Amino acid sequence: MLMTNTALRDETTSPETMPVRVKDPTVPTNPWTPPHGEEEARRYLSAVREWASVDWNEVYDDLDTILHGEEEISHHAAGPSGGAPLPNYNNDALTQRFLMALKLLVARALRDKADEKHPDIAALIRQARTLRAEVLAGDAGQTIGLVRKLARLTLDLAELLEEAGIVRGLVEC
User: Fold this and answer.
1) Is this prediction's pTM over 0.85?
2) Domain total of the chain
3) Sign of the dihedral defined by the CA atoms of residues 144, 145, 147, 148, in that order
4) Do strands 2-7 and 16-21 pair parallel, antiparallel, or not at all (unpaired)?
5) Is the CB of residue 106 less than 8 Å from the CB of residue 157?
6) Residue 97: domain span
């Protein structure tokens, strides 16, 4: 059975009759159901609303502070600690900033399949996952050591991704 429907293409043309296919009752159709319940959808929406992007300038300032114990060193000069005492800083805030930076860097690397192309990046991704589990299970006495590990890993992964051409200046993440 073929039905027709009248449609207008634009205001200047006259109505044109177009065929419309009638639903075949022998073809089963399933109504759409959402993949998650209402509560889970609300949780996702809440997480999206609370999400804040990473301020990479702040991350690099933190790298300088953690890796050098100083405030005014270029991030390109960041390297092994010079033995200077660490200033009084908020470990939780730094930890969260480094975790978010690592999460974005790992996601970017995986999106571009950098782990398949570059074994060094794959190794850093594995380290990031292991270190994240350590931080989440964290011991308050190990906080400074974990923050330093997060800082070193963040810097190493950012540099390798930049060398591989996956990120430029970290603004893209």
Assistant:
1) no
2) 1
3) positive
4) antiparallel
5) yes
6) 90-163
